[in-house]
Amino acid sequence: MMPTAKDLQNWIGSDLAFRIDGKSIFCQLCGKPINSEKKFLVDQHKRTKKHKEKVLEARRKDGQTSSKMVKQLSIPGVFSKQQECRDEEKAFKEALCKALLKANIPLNKVDNEEFKSFLSKYTGRKIPCESSLRKTYVASTYEKNFK
């Protein structure tokens, strides 16, 4: 049985990092919908490393708590925001691949824990593994930049 809107509201409390869209919950910080079939899934999302980092980032930017978030988006707005986030992630991964290739840095260096944590810390993004870069971005990067 799906939870009611009242259940969802009780689960997220006054944390405005989350928004209720009908019968689902959307995390405005992470820019993604949260599986809201069970309360523990919402709690599990709150405990993820990415969400915690986004909360800290929002606090640093605003100098306030995560409860002062952006206004509620419409459902089409949610989907466009998700697409925007995916496009930004893709552009970052393409730029990372291009930079590594142009600097003649082997792609396997992104799997080095120290390098990966450095990049992640200063870019604020999740760094893809070498095989993801190779399978998804090398061919298109080569076509665009090396021919």
Automatic annotation (TrEMBL):
Coiled-coil positions: none
InterPro entries linked: Cggbp1, Znf_C2H2_sf
Listed GO biological process terms: regulation of transcription by RNA polymerase II
GO molecular function, one term: double-stranded DNA binding
GO cellular component, one term: nucleus
SUPFAM superfamilies (alphabetical): beta-beta-alpha zinc fingers
Full protein name: CGG triplet repeat-binding protein 1
